[in-house]
Each structure stands twice: as C-alpha cells, then as structure tokens.
Design brief:
Layout (H helix, E strand, L loop, with lengths): L6 H11 L2 H27 L23 H4 L1 E7 L2 E6 L4 H6 L10 H24 L5
Helix pairs in contact: 2-5
C-alpha cells in the first residue's frame, strides 16, 4: 500500500483555499488594486495640469489635463461584492473623454491606468492567496 507524505498538510491547504479567510483576504486585495487604479487615473489627470487662464487642454490620446478638477475628484473605488470592486469616474463628461465623441477625440485616463496597475493588482491578489494558503491568515 502506498503511503502519502504530507497528505494532512495538503488537505489543510485545500481547506484554507475554500475558507472565508480566503474570500476576506482576496477581497481586500481586489479592493486595494481597484483603489490603486483610481489613484493612478486621478494622478494622470492632475500631474502637470494648470488650472485657470493658463490651462492648456491635453492632446488627443493623452489623459485630460485638469482645469476644474471635477473629473479627477469624481474618480471613486467601490466594493461591489466579496471579491469584486469597481473604479469609476462620475463626472458627466468622463465617458466622452475616455472614449471620445463625434466632436472630441478620446483622452483616455482609466484604461491607461488599468494597464499600468495590472501587474501590481496581480501581485496583491497572489500575495493574499499565498498568505491564506500558507496559513498566515485564518
């Protein structure tokens, strides 16, 4: 008869994967990643921007340059479920800037922020899973 070495430890790891601790830890990591995306999007709008009479609009394809700060201050992160979170901008013209309109070329700020923060988000979630699987969080 074969003897399995480490079977109990492996069974314990599998149990932790399905635990509420896993959902809690990964949920926190997902929210942190979404918040990181929101921060990066807001920074892309405000860095180098000048408000008032010296304001210079951004060029098509670049993030918008803040003038009134309505757009960058409208960017929020919201937890939408145990393992989900959303980053969004609620300014009335946010979608028009992000995707362009028939009159204005796109000036994306969320999509570049998502691309820039994607690897960091993966690292956050991997670290959360690792903490739970290795028994650091129960």
């Amino acid at each position: 008869m074969a003897r399995i070495i480490g079977g109990k430890a492996h069974a314990a790891r599998l149990k932790r994967i399905r635990s509420s601790a896993m959902v809690r830890e990964v949920g926190k990591a997902v929210y942190a990643a979404a918040d990181y995306l929101s921060t990066e999007a807001a920074l892309s709008i405000t860095q180098g921007a000048v408000s008032g009479k010296n304001h210079v609009p951004s060029r098509p394809g670049e993030p918008p340059n803040a003038d009134t700060h309505v757009l960058d201050r409208s960017i929020r992160t919201e937890k939408t479920g145990p393992l989900t979170a959303v980053s969004s901008a609620s300014a009335p013209y946010a979608a028009g800037l992000e995707f362009g309109t028939s009159k204005v070329a796109e000036r994306p700020f969320m999509r570049p922020a998502a691309a820039k923060t994607r690897e960091q988000a993966r690292k956050l979630v991997r670290a959360a899973v690792k903490r739970v699987v290795e028994g650091g969080t129960l």
